[in-house]
Amino acid sequence: MKKYILSLSVLALFYTKTNACAWSDPDYEYFNLFTQSIIKDKSYLPFLLSYSTRFYDQYKQGMIPDENIESWKKFFNNQLSYSETDYLVHKISLNDLNDLKKGVPNNPLLKKLGVGFYQKYKEGIDYLIEAKYLEPYMRINFVENENSFYYSGSGNDKNATNLDYYKTIAALTSLYNAAKNPEIKQRYGYQIVRFNHYTRNYDAATQAFKKYVQPVKLKGTPYFMALDQLAGAQRGLEMNSDANWNFFQVFMNSKSRKESAFVSMKLSDTASFNNIMKRAGTNEEKNMAYFLLGYEDFNNPIPIMEKMFEIDPNSEILKVMAVRSINELERSYLPIYYYSDNNNTVVQKNTSDKTSSETTIVKKEEKLSIWQKIVRFFKNLFGGSKKSDKSKDENKADQSDDELLENPNRIPVFSKNNYWYDEKTKDYLDDLEKFTAKTKEKSDDEYWQIADAYLKFLKKDYKESTEILEDIKTSNPEYLEQIKRMKVLNDIVSQPKIDAEYEDHLMKDYAEYFVEKEIKKDSTNTDDYDYYGSVPSTADFLKDVLANRYFLQGEDGKSFLMNNKLSDLQYNPNSSLVKSVEDFYRKPNKTQFEQQIIAKNMDNVGNIEAFFANIYGDRAMRTADFEKAKSYYQKAQNFAGIPREDYEKYNPSTGKYEKLVYTGTNYDGFNNIPDYVFGHNVWESFGSPDDQSMENENYTAFPFIKLKMNKLQLADALIQLKKIGNGKDEKSAKANQLIGNLLYNTSILGYYRQIFVMDIDNSNGGKYDFWRTELENPYQYYYKNFLDKSFIEPDNFDLAINYYKKALNLSTNKEEKARILFQMASAEQGKYYQYEAKNQANIDYSDPKWSEKTDAHQKEMDNIKNQKYRTYFALLKTQYANTETAKNLIGSCSYFGYFMK
Q: What keywords are assigned to this protein (predicted)?
């Protein structure tokens, strides 16, 4: 396929391992549909795939057993549980053990075990007493040198050098010689090696291992604990190859020490894993070495997995490699967000740098811009744009042609081609699928069948995936849970249309994935704040699938409410979406799914009827349909106000951010609109009080314009002004001018731009952007990221200009005409900004002629602005330059002053 290079602006939107935002956590950015931790050997959990941390740490505490505790549990003949053994070894105090030795146990656990417990396990208890005495000192001392660049601590921390070296060695040697139990003897040997290591007597540590550990001829937990210390001493002696090999043996043979052994290997030898591979003799060692090589260089692990398969297809670590591969594929295929830029280009947010090469972007050679190519690319993936509503018969015809919903199986949550590959790159998913299919035939672990079914799911072969799942026979509870989840996924995702019957099926069989469970938080925990939100889950994924289905079916209201609250509409109140949400609200006989899952997101906005009516009235005002606006506002008089409970605004007079408080005198979304809304700018400053930024016109002839008005009164005033404006006198001219002022002042450029877009003041950002799309609705797949962008239908500046034209033609006052022309010129500026936003240069920053092309584009835009969008400035300059109004404007409006030169 062709390889296309994205510009920097687009690449910045692709979410990879390197994140633009320091607070972003990639392990919270995918759905976790295939549970990595279902591997049976939990000691490998740290080596599952994670982008947030060096090692995977999302498993529950205690899932990785401590082999040292298991060894002690066995030593005590399983008389204690695992947790009791852990308490005895790690947590019980030295005094408690000494009391037991004296025959007067005070600790509850030791009391329960009885006095005879010490006599029965005397050597073990005596060892624990010695070990607990030594433990606070068992750390290496920090040695300052010229290369030290980090804080060395307070200097009061205990370390091994605080003990008398010779007395300690003598005591441990005596205890070693006296011990009869081989395991306990070897544990004393471990302490001797460790003490020498931590006192930096590295050579003595290596000799101690040979003298006190090896002769015992046991290779259980104490042996590998001692080997770990030996390897540390060898690293201190710069015997890096030997150190690395011994850390490798610890990695292979321990459960809870794999992570630390891996880090130690990395620190010991820069070519660590390659050198281990050279020394590997047994198949087990070779298999483990291959694992470490594959883990370290995970770009394409399949060749390494093939080698591991040849050695042992039942290898547990082979499953670890496979589950990491599956997880990386899942992150690429199933992102949590799809973004559209302002050119309608869709960009998928994902967390992987794995790519695929399946589908070409353009089927035949065409001269397309890079943006057009990208749009084509994503349309190929996601099934094109949304269809309009059709009759039932037409829908049936669509179904028969497999065109219903523009091929609904191609939904956005199943993108295969997130990146661009060259022609030589293999399809990673196909390769992994082939490997998994081969391995499931050789291995007796059901894991491989589950993995194969999941890869079929990613490839959208839901029928075969389900068939594989149905044939799996297992008693493993984690496997069973994964199988159950995948059956649900296959069922829902393969459904081309979500109708009432299917919604009933969802509630009957899968309610657990949609009915939210109440999570009780600890009110006493002051640190109980989730900075990232909940981790995306299977339920979240299924909601996205349904939101996409509803979107493609034209049920925008239901699609919106799958991911948003009703109150969210106030942030982007575009008309078509609001109407669809209202249609759902008024829908009779809602299904159980619609009532319990979708309608629950219709949160408290006060009076819902007034909420919708206010939005519709606002839109009618922006289109200058004042009569329609009045009819809506009559229904909106119970509007409860725009809820902004946590909103704070900077007050320049106090220098502080102040919480919004509705006092009954400030604008609340319906009430308390000042008469300045009919006035004009003194200067353009959105942050200044209105009595500084705005100036009133003469309202003497219009007593219905009140000092403060609600929206109903405002609409009524406009209707009266419109009627008066139909006359032929100066009053009619002023009426038209006031209407033009209001339309301009409430546009994107006006001081009161918040009034008809459901905002509380003019300071908020996103709503006041000039959009680069001509689409009625820029949301292309669902409304999940509704609050991440803003879209409201653009202003029609010609409406204001047309009223100004009437005023200009009727007015005989030259000063008034100058003011009107300036207002017309300001509105014309808005038309230019809209044109400019739709005609961006889009020049690749890597272009060697970027600066030259950018300057040329800007020059072209300046010419267009002066030729097409300076009409009323030109009239003002040529015919009214000597008016007092024009002279005052030159001083208060910099761009007008520049134009008049």
A: Signal
Whether 21 and 38 have beta carbons less than 8 Å apart is answered as no
- The total domain count for the chain is 2
Q: Is residue 505 part of a domain?
A: no
| Tens digits of residue pLDDT in 805-861 | 999 999 999 999 999 999 999 999 999 999 998 888 888 888 899 999 999 999 999
In a domain, 249, yes or no: yes
Q: Is the four-CA dihedral 867, 868, 870, 876 of positive or negative sign?
A: positive
The H-or-E segment that residue 674 falls in is strand 673-674
- State the chain's maximal CA–CA distance in angstroms: 119
Question: Is residue 296 in a domain?
Answer: no
Q: Is residue 499 part of a domain?
A: no
Q: Which residues pair with 680 in a beta bridge?
A: 695
| Residue where a domain stops, chosen among 273, 301, 320 | 273
Structure tokens at 182: 């081989």
C-alpha to C-alpha distance for 584 and 566, rounded to whole angstroms: 11
Residues pairing with 708 in the sheet:
674
In degrees and rounded to multiples of 5, residue 623 shows phi and psi of: -100, 10
Q: For helices 884-892 and 814-838, what crossing angle results, to 10°?
A: 40
CB of 702 within 8 A of CB of 695? Answer: no
Which of these three, 222, 256, 273, is where a domain ends? 273
State which residues form the domain around 694. 648-900
| DSSP single-letter state for residue 8 | H
pTM for this model (two decimals): 0.75
pLDDT at 115 over 50: yes
